[in-house]
Amino acid sequence: MLxxxxxxxxxxxxxxxxxxxxxxxxxxxxxxxxxxxxAVAPVVVQTMTAGYTHDVDRCVAEINRMAxxxxxxVRVAVPEKKDTEALRHxxxxxxxxxxxxxHFHFQRALExxxxxxxxxxxxxxxxxxxxxxxxxxxxxxxxxxxxRVGVNEGSxxxxxxxxxxxxxxxxxxxxxxxxxxxxxxxxxxxxxxDIFHEREFFDIVISAKSMDAAFxxxxxxxxxRRFEYPLHLGVTHAGTKESGCIRSVVALGSLLSQGVGDxxxxxxxxxxxxxxxxxxxxxxxxGLRERKGVDLIACPTCGRIQVDLFTLVQDVxxxxxxxxxxxxxxxxxxxxxNGPGEAEGADVxxxxxxxxxxxxxxxxxxxxxxxxxxxxxxxxxxxxxQARVLAGEAKLxxxxxxxxxxxxxxELGSGFxxxxxxxxxxxxxxxxxxxxx
Length: 437
What we know:
With about 425 residues, this protein is of the alpha/beta class. The protein has 2 domains: about 10-285, TIM Barrel, CATH 3.20.20; about 295-420, Sulfite Reductase Hemoprotein, domain 1 (2-Layer Sandwich). Helix content is about 40%, strand content about 15%. It starts with 8 loop residues before the first strand and ends in a 17-residue tail after the last helix. The model is unreliable at about 155-160 and about 425-435 (pLDDT under 50).
């Protein structure tokens, strides 16, 4: 497990939705906690609805679809009163904590709190009246609700020696290509947090998003050194799934690998379910969350492939995604070069010979079937293996036998013609494509 930065811990949710913990590692600050140190929580995956919140039925359906995909927390926009009124009908019908995204009017935050929302997200640049912010803080403090502060170039508060502080930060970051922006964001964040501290409110999560992946890495690292609050990571306006995936994984993967980040959202101009799926895959790949469902591995394809691997992989993925719940490792390989190694390391695997597939379960060969039967037999072995795991008859990752790769110049290798011509002496192999068994 990668090391994690210690932070204050924030809790979101209730007895009905379950409580999601964000961050941790530092002593709890709540007066009833007795200062007990909190355990660092797993990184939380968030997303946001794409439809109108006031369209209650569609909003509920969208949230539940996101939750089914694995979202821990879902955020909704509440730009109008009809949106906050809808929350009273939405929240009882969903099973994950809901965050109200408030931008321009503090009253929407107060209405969301009254409607039973679990967290408020404020944009410091869009609410200029300090008394209004205090009202939101007090309402959340009374209900025990956390607030996420997302900084930008705006500010809601004037501060003595404000210009001097900006100049100092500007000099500190002078060597950075976007030093002025970083200095401004940190100054604004410090000013904004002063309001919360004066009212003794500490259930805070911080975010500092940008569309520039490299800048996100730099600013979040700097913020992590300066503040002890949990951080919400994200690359804003990341773009389509194709481009946004690269930008998000570059920034978030780099930060998470360094222990920075407690909750994430991968943002796409696409179906939000993809945000959840890719966010989970990122955390699984880094070992920051326990994988749920199949870990599918497939070779990158090359001129050695002897079956229709593209179709096979997609068919396997589609079926296993819905049917397999245990985190088994499944390898689908297109030739005998990398296949044996992957078969040895996977719980269930197939590698191809000449229009055939050799299937292994935990390193033990169980079938040699024609290409047209590969999918059906592989899926059957996956289902059977899952049943044995759930029954306690098998254990994930428990390799039973060693796989001896086929002789590279033998019957399945590139030297077969030389053997036939008597130029190379054949060596025995225990694997023959063309025989069933």
